[in-house]
Amino acid sequence: MTELELLAAAAREASRRLAFLPTDEKNAALLDLASGLESRRGEVLAASARDMAAAERAGLGGPKLRRLELGEKGLTQLIEGVRQVAALPDPVGEVTRDRVVPSGLRVRKVRAPLGVIMMIYEARPGVTIDAFALCFKAGNACILKGGREAAESNAVLARIARDALQGCGLPEAALTLITTSDRDEIRQLLSMESQIDLVIPRGGESLIRFVHEHSRIPTVQHFQGVCHALVDASADLEMALDICVTGKTSAPATCNALECVLVHEEVARRFVPALAERCAAAGVELRGDGLVTSLAPSAKQAVEDDWGREFLDLILAARVVKGLDEAIAHIQRYGSGHTDAIITKDRASAERFTAEVQSSCVLVNASTRFNDGFQLGLGAEIGISTSRVHAFGPMGLEELTTQRYVVEGSGQVR
Amino acid sequence: MTELELLAAAAREASRRLAFLPTDEKNAALLDLASGLESRRGEVLAASARDMAAAERAGLGGPKLRRLELGEKGLTQLIEGVRQVAALPDPVGEVTRDRVVPSGLRVRKVRAPLGVIMMIYEARPGVTIDAFALCFKAGNACILKGGREAAESNAVLARIARDALQGCGLPEAALTLITTSDRDEIRQLLSMESQIDLVIPRGGESLIRFVHEHSRIPTVQHFQGVCHALVDASADLEMALDICVTGKTSAPATCNALECVLVHEEVARRFVPALAERCAAAGVELRGDGLVTSLAPSAKQAVEDDWGREFLDLILAARVVKGLDEAIAHIQRYGSGHTDAIITKDRASAERFTAEVQSSCVLVNASTRFNDGFQLGLGAEIGISTSRVHAFGPMGLEELTTQRYVVEGSGQVR
User: What digits encode the pLDDT tens for the residues B299-331?
Assistant: First the structure.
């Protein structure tokens, strides 16, 4: 066996023990991990500083460099996050259905771990701890392949987690950190379908495409969010302005940020100039169709490429539509199935919009920014899936499990 | 666009309408399909006869030929099956969670269709109707690629279904029958990830491998069932004999048939000779390890290859184990995660077995043959998934859906 095969086999072996580990043992290990991170703060921060210095020497800058940073505040949040995961209910063993069928069998459907989860991610070293905590609480072993730039931070964080596992008498292979960045070796891992049950790529488009192309293991993708908001004829326009502007400004680089506003023609004359003014004040570039630019001369003329685009920046597209039909058709054509919202006072419009727009999260009179595991009450999330299969939308603990049948009989045969 | 691309685009378009089609309209179309099958019995039977004649000319025989046959009785069952699917509750729109989170948002998790499902299957033409009925009831369009041998039957069945759709004013593209068997064209379809949401291969190992290797679309596999039964030290041995022998004889070629019996050494001396006798009487070839053959001279000596093998025939492997540890280790090594059973009177053994054996269905004191959608109370099934991701075990209507969030607010922003 190659070294990678040995690592994967050890992860599988560890997953067998985790699958039926009592909740209190899992929580104890997570709390030990939190304490370990607390008492070894200096070690973590020093590793992060080494990563940052190397990245700066290599010319990394802007958002990438910021994502790489793990400072005092970020570390405190990370530790708090681990404690929160420990406090969440254990999904494993939850009985989601329990009935006696005509043959007399008692049929229970029970949540169970997926097994071994591989996560491939970039930059943010905190993911090493977040992902481990969630996978572990859901009874899974994880194989983590972080970004090269975060190598030192990831190594220290993984070490602390493995020390916590060992201290609790649990298999260290519950967390395996892959240090290679060799694409051939990653491809090898992506072909180990008998040892790895699920692959979650989280990062830029090229990473996701690479994983998708080469994985023989099921993947759940966290792809782009091209989020729309429809300002309906009956919308409260002040509410709509708030939702549209903050939807862009509160975190422009996130996947649930608003990218495109669709304005019902009946309110365009009142809404578009106000939107342009608020955008200008907030430093947001507005790119509109002909009607938008005629109503708001400060808006730039949008080009075809601006529809369906995830700007990841302070840019917002806007288009006037004749009504719900045209808005829904636009979203079906250009949307990414991530998050879409309608601002309306009309019950029938809201119902039609939520029924026909089949995105992972559809909101009525609220910001697209709420499509997030914490905000929707999942407690924590490992990312937001844009695959409809297995998990769609924020992936919390439940989405890191499967369900199986446990059946009790008294000698039934067929 | 190629012809296949046009077909897939039409399926996607149809799926948009099916996604929010009211339950009564779906049921009406299914009942019209049942009536259509009833009134066009002659057409179906004639097409099946042509397929059978061609298959016999081509030298097809045995179980393959039997699976191809769609006679009077099979057709009646098929029609009854469609009516049963119409009578099942509609999974779409089911609210699986409903809560108000601290921000005041009302967050509902709602079942929604997957979209477009492609199914690739062999021989049995009835799958054309079964698969369509289930996909359609769950709000999905389907693309069906049946076996070449069943071409005539499949064409007539699909025509009747499309006529029912058209008669109800629904898009015929809700069912697309692919008639090519060209592997390049199948590969083309398997790469249409933006039009097709899920691929379900159902058939022999080579079909499943082909799909798994070439699909860029998520797949759920219905792979082999290497089912085990452990006869524990405290087992009711008469019950164990019934479960073991009928587990093999009632349908030896199905995936939930029993393949291997593990016998606790404490009861081996009493159980193995009785098992051998019952097997001999039922025409089942017993292949045992050294202990089994010494206790039952009629048993053949098993070779390494007999462990973990899906015989699909009247052959049963048997091994004596020291206890639960060895039995579980055997199942983890040789099992396929499909179905495993324990026969025991000991509560602790049952609990340990059901916790540590993580198969899609684990049974206590019942036959492995119960891992089946009808038997477990799902109403109907499209197959039994051996993938842990998305669906594990029998796939019924629920497993042909996803879940998404529908959120109502009153102007909340972040």
Answer: 999 999 999 999 999 999 999 999 999 999 999
> Under 8 Å CB-to-CB from A129, ≥6 apart: which residues?
A33, A37, A78, A81, A82, A157, A161
CB B42, CB B70: distance < 8 Å: no
Contact B89, B141 (CB under 8 A): no
Q: Which of B377, B405, B408 sits opposite A360 (nearest CB)?
A: B405
CA separation (Å) from A392 to A90, A287, A331, A359, B4? 21, 30, 18, 9, 27
Q: Give the one of A212, A251, A409 whose C-beta lies nearest to B216's C-beta.
A: A212
B362/A405 Cβ within 8 A: yes
Question: pLDDT tens for residues A6-44?
Answer: 999 999 999 999 999 999 999 999 999 999 999 999 999
Residue of A nearest to B212 (CA): A216
Cβ partners under 8 Å of residue B362, min gap 6? A404, A405, A406, A407, B339, B340, B341, B342, B353, B354
Assess whether pLDDT exceeds 80 at residue A63: no
- Render pLDDT for A234-280 as a digit per residue (tens, 0 to 9): 999 999 999 999 999 999 989 999 999 999 999 999 999 999 999 99
B107 vs A377: CB contact, 8 Å cut-off?
yes
Residue A257 contacts residue A368 (beta carbons within 8 Å): yes
Query: How far apart, in whole angstroms, are the C-alpha atoms of residue B296 and residue B292?
Result: 6
CA A167 to CA A33: how far, in whole Å?
10
Is A101 in Cβ contact with B375 (below 8 Å)? yes
CB atoms A364 and B407 under 8 Å: yes
Phi, psi of A376 (to 5 degrees): -90, 5
**Number of other CB atoms surrounding residue B182 within 10 Å:** 8
Q: For residues A380 and B177, which has the higher predicted lDDT (pLDDT)?
A: B177
Average pLDDT for chain B: 96
Interatomic CA distance for residues A153 and A15, integer angstroms: 25
- Residues from chain A that touch B398, judged by Cβ atoms under 8 A, are none
% helix / strand / coil in chain B, to the nearest 5?
45, 20, 35
pLDDT averaged over every residue in chain A: 96
- Cβ pair A370:B409 closer than 8 A: yes
Report pLDDT digits (tens) over A280-310. 999 999 999 999 999 999 999 999 999 999 9
The string of pLDDT tens digits covering residues A205-239 is: 888 889 988 999 999 988 889 999 999 999 999 99
What are the helix (H) ranges across B58-197?
Answer: 62-68, 72-87, 126-137, 151-167, 183-190
Let me know: does A145 contact A118? Beta carbons within 8 Å.
Answer: yes
Residue in chain A closest to B191 (alpha carbons) equals: A213
**Is residue A224 within 8 Å of residue A386, measured between CB atoms?**
yes
Q: What is the largest CA-CA distance in chain B?
A: 79
Q: Is residue A393 helix, strand or coil?
A: strand
Average pLDDT over every residue of B23-40? 98
Q: Are B12 and B171 in contact (CB under 8 A)?
A: no
Indicate yes or no: CB of A101 within 8 angstroms of CB of B355: no
Identity at B53, one-letter amino acid code? A
Copy the structure tokens of residue B407: 């959120």
The yes-or-no verdict on residue A64 having pLDDT over 90 is no
The tokens describing A277, both together, are 């003014």
The verdict on a CB contact (< 8 Å) between B393 and A404 is yes
Nearest residue of B to residue A372, measured between CA atoms = B405
Of the residues A117, A365, A412, the best mutation for testing chain B's interface (the one with the most B CB atoms within 10 Å of its CB) is A412
Do A98 and A39 touch, CB atoms closer than 8 A? no
- Which chain B residue's Cα is nearest to A219? B218
Contact B70, B44 (CB under 8 A): yes
Contact B371, B394 (CB under 8 A): yes
Q: What is the predicted pLDDT for the residue at B218?
A: 93
